[in-house]
Amino acid sequence: MQSYQHKGFTLLEVLIAIAIFSLISLSSFTIFDTVIRSDETSEKLSKRHNELQRAFLIIERDIIQIAQRSIRINGESPLSGFLQTSGDEFSSNEQALAFVRHGWTNPGLLLPRSDVQAVAYRLVDQTLERLHYNFVDAVVGTEPKIQPLISKVSALTFEYYNGEEWRKGWSKEYLPLAIAIEVNTKDYGVIRRQFLVAGSKIENKEGLGVNP
């Protein structure tokens, strides 16, 4: 009569197998977690880059189409210059910039508004905002449309080029040759962009504006 001997795993073999399986599982989880975190980081960076690129495209579009037209704020009388650079009307603590621009799409003037637009930029709660009004000369009490552009901004600065130097402010009755905007971001530091202004003038030594 033939007998069969049944063999099984010893306790030590089972413990070794469990330990090996645990190490493999831990390694797999670590790799998976690293991949997930890298993907999240890449997505955040991509969104941030898109935010910055979109914002500066909007700013460039506005500045290169500045109109030689005075701006009226809250139904008040028109200002003497083409640029409003004081922050008092838009933000009490930070610099701001307001002007009128051409090129606001209105094919055939079908909409009950002009094709020029009053816009402004300001910094509120660490966010660079763009403001615009549906009508170029806003009446008293009209609230602007607010569009957040760049978040995580700690400081906002505008500079104006007169043909010889960059100035912090601009009170002339003509446009500067170029306008620079600096935003101090928490993640990328200071970002500066300079934009040419169409139809601008050069200031000569006597302080008069002459066409370039």
Brief account:
This protein is of the alpha+beta class and 212 residues long. The chain contains one helix and ten strands, in the order αββββββββββ. A hairpin with a 2-residue loop joins strand 2 and strand 3.
Keywords:
212 residues; alpha+beta; Pili subunits; 1 helix; 25% helix
CATH H-level homologous superfamily name: GSPII I/J protein-like
Overall geometric form: elongated
Mean pLDDT: 79
Q: Which sequence of SSEs, written as H and E, runs from N to C?
A: HEEEEEEEEEE
Assign a percent range to the helix content: 25-40%
CATH architect. name: Roll
Stated plainly, the CATH topology is called: Pili subunits
Give start-end ranges of low-pLDDT stretches: none
Structural class: alpha+beta
CATH class: Alpha Beta
Number of helices: 1
Whole-number radius of gyration? 30 Å
Oligomeric composition of the shown chains: single chain
Biggest β-sheet description: 4 strands, antiparallel
Distance between the termini: 116 Å
Physical arrangement of strands within the biggest beta sheet: 1-2-3-4
Give the number of domains.
1
Q: Give the DSSP E fraction (strand runs of 2 or more residues).
A: 25-35%
Number of strands: 10
